[in-house]
Structures are given as structure tokens and as C-alpha cells.
Design brief:
Strand content: under 5%
Oligomer: single chain
Helix content: 55-70%
Radius of gyration: 20 Å
Order of helices and strands: HHHHHHHHEEHHHHH
Distance between the termini: 34 Å
Number of helices: 13
Strand order of the largest sheet: 1-2
Number of strands: 2
Length: about 280
């Protein structure tokens, strides 16, 4: 998580006034706390109320990230019982829904052709068209890794494609070599896949409702950075059991290699932004 928490787009958003910075940070903290307590025999009351507080914060930040709260079910029932899990998820969701109902009368569309209620009616009557819109055109999906990793400004300051491929492949390599024995299981992976898929659908749904023309055949406005809060869940999903000895052999210099790679990446991104805005 350290490597991906310092992904250039995360640093860029964190240095701006975007509210996404707090959403991403809270999501990372929520997931990190859950991962830390997955194999603990019991948890304290403070831990339970901390999860509740973070869950409410995530739900109020953006409804699109509600599925992240399901990560709480990665904790075994012997550590945190089902009643507490359901209470945290439901209370957080109901708080966000209640707040949305309170402010719905002051909601104003950002574009004149946007009509949330008519768009919702179109989706309910044409669900297949909406599903098709989420995955078309295919070239839009290919652009997501760029805006996920390092495409700054108004998506008008991209970095080199080779750099994006390098950064993501290195991250994937690090994930696959981690020793997570006793933490990742098939059932837990299934939960993480469900979170990722449901989040993808919900993000597309909310963008479609609030940013697109009624009946649009594609979801316009989707950016890779919208998926940054999902990074911890994706890491968990891609992790696998691996012989620790193999990992140590391949990455015996990891304490030096990874920070050095991150520093070089950040310097390169600073150079890209300097050339774009100051030269």
C-alpha cells in the first residue's frame, strides 16, 4: 500500500484543494485498519467506533464509495461479530442517504441538459443500454490507466505511456511477491472482487446520472482518479500466497529499490508539470 499511496496522481490530488484527497486518504486508512485486524483474536470497542466513524465519513464523502464499507466483512466473525459489521455498514449508508434526502431540494445540475430523475427513469426502463454504455467505447477504458496513474491538470498534462506501464507493472510485481499467507483466502478474494465490481458500476451510474445527456450511449466524464480509493481493495484482490524465500531472493534490496523508484518517478512528474506550466 505504501507504493500505491505515493502514486503520482495521489500526490497531485493531495496537494490540491480537491475533496477527493480526504476521500482517498480515509479509504486507505479504513482498509489499512481492517487488514491489520484480520487475524487478531479480538478487537476493542475503540476499534469498532473508529470503523463506524470512518465508514460514515466515506459514505458522506461520496455515495459512489459505499461498497468499500463491505471490506469490513473481510474480518472474521470470531474477531468482529456479524451484528457489529451490519450495524456499521447500514448506519453509515443510512446516514449518507438521510443527508442526500435533506439536500436534494438544493441540488442543481452542473449542465443544462442534465436531468437526474429522467436519466434514472431511462436506466430503469433500459438497463441493457446502460450496461452497454459502461463498457463502450473500448478506447475509453484504455485511457483510464493514464488518468489513474499520472495525467495532471484538466487531463491535459499526460506523462509518457512507457512510464505509466512501468509504474503499474512494478506495482503489480511488488503485490504478487508479497507474503500474505494466512491473510488472503478464496472467500476474502470473492468479497474484494464484489467490492471492485459494485464500485465500478456505482461510479459509472452516478456519473451517468449527473454528467450525461439522457439516453447517452456512453458514460462520459469517467476518469481513472475516481478509482484511487479502491487501490487497497485491488491490492488485496491481486495478492496471492507466495513462498517468502522466493520473494526475499527477488526483492532482497526492496528497502532501497522501491523508495528510489518512487523518488525518481516523483522527480519525473515534477519535471512534466514544470515544463507544462512554467516554461
Amino acid at each position: 500500500m505504501f507504493y500505491f499511496s505515493l502514486i503520482p496522481m495521489n500526490i497531485f490530488i493531495g496537494s490540491s484543494l480537491s475533496a477527493d484527497a480526504m476521500t482517498i486518504a480515509t479509504s486507505f486508512l479504513f482498509c489499512a485498519i481492517i487488514f491489520r485486524h484480520i487475524n487478531k483474536p479480538k478487537v476493542s470497542s475503540q476499534f469498532k467506533f473508529l470503523l463506524l466513524f470512518l465508514g460514515i465519513f466515506i459514505a458522506l464523502s461520496k455515495l459512489a464509495y459505499l461498497p468499500i464499507l463491505i471490506a469490513i466483512f473481510l474480518i472474521p466473525s470470531k474477531t468482529l461479530n456479524l451484528t457489529w459489521k451490519l450495524s456499521i455498514v447500514l448506519f453509515s449508508a443510512l446516514t449518507a442517504i438521510f443527508w442526500s434526502l435533506m439536500v436534494k431540494d438544493i441540488y442543481l445540475p452542473c449542465l443544462e441538459y442534465v436531468n437526474l430523475y429522467n436519466q434514472l427513469q431511462f436506466i430503469l426502463t433500459n438497463p441493457v443500454k446502460f450496461i452497454s454504455a459502461m463498457f463502450s467505447p473500448f478506447d475509453r477504458l484504455l485511457q483510464l490507466p493514464g488518468s489513474f496513474t499520472a495525467n495532471f491538470g484538466w487531463l491535459d498534462t499526460p506523462t509518457n505511456k512507457c512510464f505509466i506501464v512501468y509504474y503499474l507493472l512494478l506495482g503489480l510485481f511488488v503485490i504478487r511477491l508479497e507474503n500474505v499467507e494466512g491473510v488472503v483466502s478464496k472467500s476474502r478474494k470473492n468479497i474484494s472482487v464484489f467490492i471492485i465490481v459494485s464500485n465500478y458500476v456505482l461510479i459509472n451510474l452516478l456519473i451517468y446520472l449527473s454528467w450525461n445527456k439522457i439516453g447517452e450511449d456512453r458514460v462520459e466524464g469517467i476518469q481513472g482518479r475516481y478509482f484511487l480509493p479502491l487501490i487497497p481493495i485491488v491490492i488485496f484482490c491481486l495478492s496471492r500466497l507466495k513462498n517468502k524465500k522466493t520473494a526475499d531472493i527477488v526483492f532482497k534490496n526492496r528497502p532501497i529499490f522501491l523508495p528510489l523508484s518512487i523518488i525518481i518517478s516523483q522527480i519525473y512528474c515534477l519535471l512534466v508539470m514544470y515544463l507544462r506550466y512554467y516554461v
